[in-house]
Specification:
Length: about 400
């Protein structure tokens, strides 16, 4: 795993040090820079500024409102507003260049529902619609009418988000946030945090791979799958570990007519169109913690599990050929698959922004804003993300979300 040459910071002390500069870290840096301007010094330490192995770059870059918990729905609704207005929002930071258009493909999500799961699926749809989402529940007949290529024989129906769900350019989002933060005075360096020094219940400095130490007023852990590594440097522990997720792009001898959504099968396999090709993935059968540097793809996962699931749900997928594949890491929260956001109660200037379990990219706009509000105001000002607090971890009180992919 190649790492770009590390660079030293420009100063020895910062008001805020953010560990990790991908989507969550750069969103946090952007919102902080807009809130405080140059009145506070902010450093983002990113171990791989190429982002080649970041969860952001290797994600499937999708966003949905189909969650079972109201706060997750609201987080996505804010994210969608940011995605839709991103080019206009970022225009001041690009001057003579064109700000990134995130190419939002508003194809929606289709959650297949088992016969036994109809009642719970309808309840989720009702909740989502009460919050302003456009989800509808389709029984097997109307579902087959809408999507004639779908096998509905073993389904109780499907939840379809016809609007404000889809997929977008993940690196465009990251680069825009990063550009806005840097233009507003945030410093980014290619480096890695190797240790933290604590005193009086606070982080007082971070040691870097290049040997320097930088003192800080607040430290933000936005290290993605490496979140537990950073927490351990402060003597803390969170149930976050890297989990491998394999993505496969394939061609089909039989095209899918019409506007195909992102289909979530009962098996957990998903599939969506990518131009004339298709993107698919699943939760691997052996879904244990991965080595931080292990990005090897398990091709048998496609042959043995994904393809059979695809062929069952979409029978015209009987002749497929993989054209491309890659493997990324989820920063997987083993307690409840939801994010951890907020200060530690004892190491009082250590901020968590971790454990989003595959939702980090889509939740990064709202999470970055929320972290900024906690640092600047001491409390949430817009969305109340207090259910994501660290305190639920030692209490072993999961904040459950039913709609996990």
């Amino acid at each position: 795993m190649a790492i770009p040459p590390y660079k030293a910071p420009s100063r020895t002390s910062y008001d805020i040090v953010i560990v990790g500069g991908a989507a969550v870290g750069s969103s946090t840096a952007y919102w902080l820079s807009q809130a405080v301007g140059t009145s506070a010094s902010i450093l983002v330490v990113e171990r791989d500024s190429s982002y080649e192995f970041s969860s952001t770059a290797l994600s499937t870059s999708a966003i949905r409102q189909q969650y079972s918990n109201p706060i997750n729905v609201k987080i996505s609704q804010f994210g969608i507003r940011i995605i839709q207005s991103f080019q206009e929002r970022m225009a001041p930071f690009y001057k003579d260049e064109l700000a990134p258009d995130l190419g939002f493909r508003e194809h929606g999500y289709l959650y297949c529902c088992s016969v036994d799961g109809v009642e719970a699926a309808r309840a989720r749809v009702d909740l989502q619609r009460s919050l302003g989402a456009h989800t509808v529940f389709l029984e097997p007949g109307p579902l087959k009418d809408r999507f004639p290529w779908l096998n509905v024989e073993d389904l109780g129906g499907g939840a379809w988000g016809a609007r404000e769900e889809g997929w977008f350019d993940s690196m465009g989002l990251l680069n825009g946030f990063r550009r806005g933060a840097r233009a507003s005075g945030v410093e980014y360096i290619d480096n890695a945090v190797t240790g933290l020094e604590l005193s009086g219940g606070r982080v007082i400095s971070a040691k870097l791979s290049t040997g320097q130490s930088v003192s800080c007023g607040t430290l933000v852990n936005a290290a993605g799958p490496r979140a537990q590594q950073v927490a351990a440097m402060a003597g803390l522990s969170i149930p976050v570990e890297p989990r491998k997720r394999h993505s496969f792009v394939f061609s089909s001898a039989n095209p899918i007519p019409g506007r195909m959504p992102n289909v979530i099968d009962l098996s957990g396999t998903f599939v969506r169109p990518e131009g004339e090709l298709f993107l698919t993935g699943n939760t691997p059968l052996n879904d244990g913690p991965a080595d931080y540097d292990d990005f090897e793809t398990d091709y048998l996962e496609f042959d043995d599990r994904i393809w059979p699931a695809l062929w069952h749900r979409i029978p015209c997928f009987d002749a497929l050929k993989v054209q491309q594949s890659w493997t990324g890491h989820y920063e997987y929260n083993t307690l409840d698959h939801n994010g951890i956001v907020g200060f530690h109660p004892e190491v009082t200037n250590f901020m968590f922004a971790n454990g989003f379990s595959g939702h980090g990219l889509q939740q990064s706009p709202a999470v970055g804003r929320a972290v900024s509000e906690l640092i600047v105001h001491g409390a949430f000002q817009t969305l109340d993300l207090s259910p994501f607090c660290y305190e639920r971890i030692p209490r072993n009180e999961p904040f459950l979300e039913e709609a996990v992919i």
